[in-house]
Write a structure and sequence with these properties.
The protein contains 16 helices and eight strands. The protein is mainly alpha-helical. It has three domains: 176 residues, no CATH class; 168 residues, Intergrase catalytic core (hpI Integrase, Chain A, Orthogonal Bundle), CATH 1.10.443; 78 residues, no CATH class. The strands form three sheets. The protein has a three-stranded antiparallel beta sheet.
C-alpha cells in the first residue's frame, strides 16, 4: 500500500522546498525528524542544482520518493548493496520500471475519476474480475526512469568511491545503460496534441470571459476586489497568451509596467529566487523575458486594480507582485499562489457552467495562437488589394513575431501552433467542399424530379 509520505525505517519523507537567505528555492526530501534524506540531498547539491530548474529538480525528487517506496516494499537497501559490489539484475530493473509506471495518485486515493479498471477474463469458463493498476503516460515513465537511473548511478559511484576498482565502475556503467534501455520508445503526446483532441466550441472562451466580468450576474466570486482581480487575470491570459506562471509573477515595479503614454506595455520578467517572494513554490517564467503591448482599456483596468484595490490591501506593499490575496487572514496581501489559482480560482469559474469544465488555463495560450494565425490570414488576404495599404506577412515573419510574443527561444517552437491552424483550415475547407457537393447532388435530384 502506498503512503503519500514515504516511510523508510522510522522516518517518513515528504517533498518540501527550503528558501535560503538569498532567495534560492531548494527542493528536498525532508524527514519527519527534521533531517533531509542524505543521499537525495547530496545528489541534488552535486549533480542537479547547478544545471536544472527548481521545478525539474522537484520532479526528479518526486520520482525518487516513489522509487524509495519500491525499496521499502522489497525490503532493499541499494546503497548498502552497492557498497558490497552487488548491482541491479535485469529482473530488478524490470520490477523498478513497472513500479515507476504506476499512477501514484491511484494509490493516494486522490484520483477518484481514475478508479481501478476491471477486465473480464475467462478462467475455466467462469468469468472473473481482475484489477488492473492505472499507469501513467510514456513521457512520465520516460522521465521517471531517467531520474532514477541518474540517482542510482550517482549513489553507486559514491558507494564504491574508495575502492578504486575499474571492474566496479564498468558494472555501474552497465547497470546505468540497462536501466536507461527500459525507457519507453517513441515520444508520447505533448500538451498541444492532447488539446487538439478537445477543441473548444466556437465562442466558449468569449462566454467564459463574459461571466468573468466583475459586474456579470453569474460571476461566482463574492467581493468586488476579488471579481476585478480575477477578471483581470483571465483577461491578460487571453489577450497576451502568457503562461500561468508568467501571469502570477507579473510585477508592478516601474521598469516592468507602463500604463500611461502612447505605448502601454507590460514586461514578462524572470524572478527566479526572489527574496521578496514568500511563495515556496514560486511561479516563474519558463520562457524568455519580453515586453508585451497592452490595450488602453487593459492598462486602465490594471491601473485601477493597483491604485484602488491592491494599494489598500494590508501587506501588499511588502513585495512587488501584481496579483495578491484580498481575503482576510494570514495570507492577505501575499502574492497569489499557483495552488490558489489552480484549486480555487479556476475551479470556481468552471462551476458556473458545465461547458466551462473543459477550459484549462493553457487553453488561453492556444486560443491566442489561433487568433494570431487568423489575423495573419486576414491581413494577407487584404494585402492582395492594392488599395488596402497592407503588406504581405511571410511565414518567416509570422514565425518571428509569434516566437517573440510567446517567449520562445526558436522559431521551431511555434511550428505546432502553425500546423494546428493549417490542419483546422484544411478540415474546414474539406467540410465546406463536402457540404457544397451534397448541396449540388440534392439540387440535381430535385431538377430530375426525384424529390
Amino acid at each position: 500500500m502506498y503512503e503519500e509520505n514515504v516511510r523508510l525505517g522510522c522516518t517518513v519523507y515528504k517533498l518540501d522546498r527550503l528558501i535560503f537567505a538569498n532567495g534560492e528555492r531548494y527542493p528536498v526530501l525532508m524527514g519527519n525528524d527534521g533531517m533531509p534524506h542524505f543521499l537525495a540531498t547530496l545528489w541534488v547539491t552535486t549533480k542537479l542544482r547547478s544545471s536544472l530548474s527548481v521545478n525539474t529538480i522537484s520532479n526528479r525528487l518526486g520520482a525518487l520518493k516513489w522509487f524509495l517506496q519500491w525499496e521499502e516494499n522489497k525490503h532493499r537497501d541499494l546503497f548498502s548493496e552497492f557498497q558490497k559490489g552487488k548491482f541491479l539484475s535485469d529482473t530488478d530493473i524490470d520490477n523498478i520500471r513497472e513500479h515507476l509506471s504506476h499512477d501514484i495518485s491511484h494509490f493516494k486515493g486522490l484520483a477518484k475519476s481514475k478508479k481501478t479498471r476491471d477486465k473480464v477474463i475467462d478462467l475455466f469458463n467462469t468469468p472473473r474480475l481482475i484489477s488492473v493498476t492505472p499507469t501513467v503516460g510514456r513521457n512520465n515513465i520516460y522521465n521517471r526512469v531517467t531520474a532514477i537511473a541518474s540517482y542510482l548511478d550517482f549513489i553507486a559511484r559514491v558507494a564504491v568511491q574508495n575502492c578504486n576498482s575499474t571492474k566496479l565502475l564498468t558494472e555501474i556503467n552497465s547497470m546505468n545503460k540497462r536501466i536507461l534501455a527500459v525507457r519507453p520508445k517513441g515520444k508520447g503526446k505533448n500538451v498541444l496534441d492532447k488539446l487538439d483532441g478537445k477543441d473548444l466550441p466556437d465562442g466558449l472562451i468569449e462566454e467564459f470571459m463574459a461571466v468573468a466580468q466583475f459586474d456579470h450576474p453569474k460571476n461566482p466570486f463574492k467581493h468586488a476586489s476579488t471579481k476585478k482581480r480575477n477578471h483581470l487575470m483571465f483577461l491578460l491570459l487571453k489577450e497576451l497568451g502568457i503562461r500561468r506562471g508568467e501571469l502570477l509573477s507579473l510585477s508592478i515595479e516601474s521598469n516592468f509596467l507602463m500604463l500611461h503614454g502612447p505605448q502601454k506595455f507590460i514586461w514578462v520578467k524572470r524572478h527566479h529566487d526572489d527574496i521578496y517572494d514568500p511563495r515556496k513554490n514560486q511561479p516563474v517564467a519558463k520562457t524568455k523575458e519580453r515586453m508585451l503591448r497592452i490595450r488602453d482599456e487593459t492598462a486602465a483596468l490594471i491601473d485601477d486594480y493597483i491604485i484602488n484595490i491592491r494599494a489598500k490591501t494590508p501587506n501588499a506593499n511588502k513585495h512587488p507582485y501584481l496579483f495578491v490575496t484580498h481575503r482576510k487572514g494570514k495570507t492577505q496581501g501575499q502574492p497569489i499562489s499557483t495552488s490558489t489559482f489552480d484549486s480555487i480560482i479556476v475551479p470556481t469559474m468552471k462551476s458556473v457552467d458545465e461547458r466551462f469544465k473543459s477550459i484549462h488555463p493553457h487553453y488561453f495560450r492556444h486560443n491566442w495562437n489561433q487568433w494570431f494565425s487568423e489575423i495573419i490570414d486576414k491581413n494577407n488576404d487584404l494585402s492582395k488589394d492594392p488599395n488596402s495599404n497592407r503588406n504581405f506577412i511571410s511565414s518567416s515573419e509570422e514565425a518571428k513575431s509569434r516566437m517573440y510574443q510567446m517567449g520562445h527561444t526558436s522559431e521551431s517552437s511555434a511550428k505546432p501552433y502553425v500546423e494546428r491552424h493549417i490542419r483546422n483550415k484544411t478540415n474546414k475547407l474539406v467540410l465546406e467542399e463536402q457540404e457544397e457537393l451534397q448541396r449540388l447532388i440534392i439540387e440535381s435530384q430535385k431538377n430530375r424530379g426525384y424529390e
